[in-house]
Every structure is written in structure tokens, then in C-alpha cells.
Design the sequence.
């Protein structure tokens, strides 16, 4: 089995405003308060 480390941007949501990383469960950046895009916005 091969183990790949998860990509940072799959584990964390990047703020479009300040480029800070936030836990995906947050809807607003903890740093600057900007709205974060939902990681599950991608449709399957
Ligand atoms: Zn921010």
C-alpha cells in the first residue's frame, strides 16, 4: 500500500483574502474574517 500525505489545501481552507489557512469547518477566516469558500462546493 502506498501512503500519500494529504495535500494541505484539502485539509485546510485557504482564505482568498489573506491567504491564511483555516480549518474547513470554519466559514469565515479566523484571521481576517473574510468568507471562506466551502470545500464541499464541488459537485460530485
Ligand atoms: Zn483571511
Sequence:
Amino acid at each position: 500500500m502506498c501512503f500519500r500525505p494529504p495535500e494541505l489545501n484539502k485539509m485546510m481552507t485557504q482564505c482568498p483574502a489573506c491567504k491564511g489557512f483555516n480549518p474547513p469547518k470554519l466559514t469565515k477566516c479566523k484571521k481576517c474574517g473574510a468568507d471562506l469558500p466551502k470545500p464541499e462546493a464541488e459537485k460530485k
Residues 1-31 form one domain. The chain has one domain: 1-31. The mean pLDDT is 82.
